[in-house]
Amino acid sequence: MEKTKKLLIVGIGETAILAHEYFMHDSEYEVVAFLADENFIKADLYRSLPLISINEAFARYDAIEHYMFVAMGSGHLNRDRTNVYYRIKAIGYKFASYVSSYAFVWRNVEIGENCLILENNTIQPFTKIGNNVVLWSGNHIGHRTEIKDHCFITSHVVISGYCSIGEYSFIGVNAAIGDGVVIGKDNFIAMGAVISNSTEDNALYIGNPAVKKSIPAKRFCKVRE
């Protein structure tokens, strides 16, 4: 695929390594550097590319010619990734999204910025994916469902039609969400959980059928606010 756009990847963990692999071999973006905060930088190169501080990048790489991608995981209920995303957005950079060529995405699906959508996802008609959302491999997103900003959907999750997934929520491997269910903001849905009824905000759900636990999701994930 011809490289027509230049990309800076923020992060030096496993998610950044995978993002580099996907963008380089399955997108129009050429990765030109990795970015991190100064206290994480131990060398000048990372994966044979320049590794520089985020603050230095603002001066070196023009925001008109370069796109950003924040390649971070779900730490602290997605706050770690989101805080960096907003920090860079305030400077005025554009964000890339990666959508695998091996994903099935219907023609009228809406996808926001700084999204990572990996192989074998099925995203049905009239679905909306917000900004800064991760869909790891092999998920089913049913028709007319909306996944709101800053969510992380792991792998082999089934989200049925007409659902809504609240901001910052995390859904674990092999979880299942029934038709028309509204997942509240700041939910942590554990691996294998089966959700057939709408959930409360800031809640942790485990089991089949899923049960709400007494500890709030933000406390469980050590969210600092």
Report the CATH topology name of the largest domain. Answer: UDP N-Acetylglucosamine Acyltransferase, domain 1
What is the CATH superfamily of the largest domain?
Answer: Hexapeptide repeat proteins
Specify Rg, calculated over alpha carbons.
18 Å
Strand proportion: 25-35%
Q: How many strand units?
A: 25
Task: Please bin the fraction of helical residues.
Answer: 10-25%
Count of domains = 2
Top-tier CATH class of the largest domain: Mainly Beta
Count of alpha and pi helical runs: 4
Enumerate the spans where pLDDT stays under 50 for 5 or more consecutive residues: none
Can you tell me the overall shape? globular
Computed structural class: alpha/beta
Estimate the mean pLDDT confidence: 97
Give the N-to-C terminal Cα separation. 42 Å
How would you describe what is shown here?
This protein is an alpha/beta fold. The protein has two domains: 5-95, 3-Layer(aba) Sandwich (Rossmann fold), CATH 3.40.50.20; 97-209, UDP N-Acetylglucosamine Acyltransferase, domain 1 (3 Solenoid). It is built from four helices and 25 strands. Strands 7-10-13-16-19-22-24-25 form an eight-stranded mixed beta sheet. The chain has a six-stranded mixed beta sheet with strand order 3-4-2-1-5-6. Helix 3 links the parallel strand 5 and strand 6. The longest helix is centred in the N-terminal third of the chain and has 12 residues, at 14-25. 40% of the residues are buried. The mean pLDDT is 97.
Quick tags:
single chain; 225 residues; alpha/beta; Rossmann fold; UDP N-Acetylglucosamine Acyltransferase, domain 1; 2 domains; 8-stranded mixed sheet; 4 helices
